[in-house]
Amino acid sequence: MKVLLLTQYFYPEVGATQTRMYEFARALTDAGHDVTVLTEFPNHPIGVIPPRYAGRWFEDDRGHAFRILRVRVMASPRKTFYTRIMFYGSFFVMAVIVALRPGDRYDVVVATSPPLPVAAAGLVVSACKRAAFVMDVRDLWPKAAQALGELSNPRLYRWAEALEQRLYERADRITATTRSFCRYIAGRGIPTAKVIHVSNGTLEDVFSPARGDAGLRQGLGLDGKLVVIYAGLHGIAQGLEMVLETAGRLRDEDEVAFVFLGEGPRKAALTEAARARGLDHVRFLPQVPIEESAHYLNLADVVLVPLARDQIFDMFVPSKLFDGLACGKPVLLSVDGEAREILEESGGGLFVPPGDAEALAAAIRHLLRHPEIRKEMGERGRQFVTRHYRRRVQAQRFTEVVADAAGRHAERR
Fold first, then answer.
1. Which of 3, 70, 185, 241 has the greatest number of beta carbons closer than 10 A?
2. Is the model's pLDDT at 373 over the cut of 80?
3. How many Cα atoms are found within 13 Å in the side-chain-facing hemisphere of 1?
């Protein structure tokens, strides 16, 4: 097959979406398909396009096993409603223009959402190219955007919800990262047979205790500390203000240190808040490539996986849960619902109610005083995730879904 994969976020950017799409593209290529990835000039999450792309609108990268087409977007380090609209809208326009160039033929178009305009671009391209359309759902947009206050205009929300419904109806197949998402989509009147659960997972050879911390613990002066790490996007949805409040409650525990690893729209405010409160045991570190992030998880004693307190997030399963378990670290999870069920089944950590800083502080004190429990949880979590949530196994499943969608579309034609 000739496959076009549309994703606004992709390698060399760092994040769950980027890793998921890279592994999907690689699995499709390994299966013998001709894969083209259409994505943006790298800029996420800081919103700054590197100087090497100055004056350019387009790049055709043939340096990988699959082709990568990159396009310019209207990126901005300021994250407002207007800049987000321009960011998402510019990718939609550029993606459609590039994908519809004469001579390029595709059997199937895959688009991952959010942002929702990426999926809309996929639908437009698939219709024009008479190709199958597969929609990958990683987030319930616009519901999550409304919950976070990023989409408060009632008219825009209704328009986005109508677009979401149209995309679900027109897709030949829909993959979703959680079972809760699958149930939600089916509840919108979509046949259950075309909604398939393809979970996130971990790269167990990258996120492995065997890789060690590359001397980072000693280099950062963290020897003798119980290191609690958050690694990921510093955004609104993560509810990281609660983690700072927890750090404040533990300022008298000299053995506890907090590390925030990554970038995002809330990082500057979080850094200033920690400084203003005199939280000297809290350290903020810049984003690193995925291979290096595994070393940071390995230097830690406890991995935090929080989300903001809202019922919508009970349907989410953050991918960093799997990476923390894969590194053999106990996970403190502040996400209820499906994610909590997975963690409790694994035995690899503790659930803390979202937004409850006192409960999180108590859980950290408990793990500080019981190193044997940390060790047991880490071993159980590693065994569980490598048995049930290997990202490359999920990528192979995705490949089968794409092939099935293309085959059924061809039969209908």
1. 3
2. yes
3. 28
Rounded Cα distance between 304 and 282, Å, is 14
Of 73, 77, 70, 74, residue with least CA distance to 48? 77
Cβ atoms of 381 and 346 within 8 Å: the answer is yes
pTM: 0.93
Q: What is the dihedral of CA 320, 255, 241, 335, to 10 degrees?
A: 40
Asked whether the beta carbons of 136 and 110 are under 8 A apart, the reply is yes
Domains recognised in the chain with CATH numbers: 2-201+390-412 (3.40.50.2000), 209-388 (3.40.50.2000)
Burial, 271: exposed, middle or buried (Cβ in 10 Å; 0-12, 13-18, 19+)? middle
Q: Give the pLDDT of residue 350.
A: 98
For 336-371, how does the pLDDT look when each residue is reduced to its tens digit (9 = 90+)? 999 999 999 999 999 999 999 999 999 999 999 999
Dihedral (CA of 119, 68, 232, 174) sign: positive
Tell me how far apart the alpha carbons of residues 349 and 145 are, in angstroms, rounded to a whole number: 29
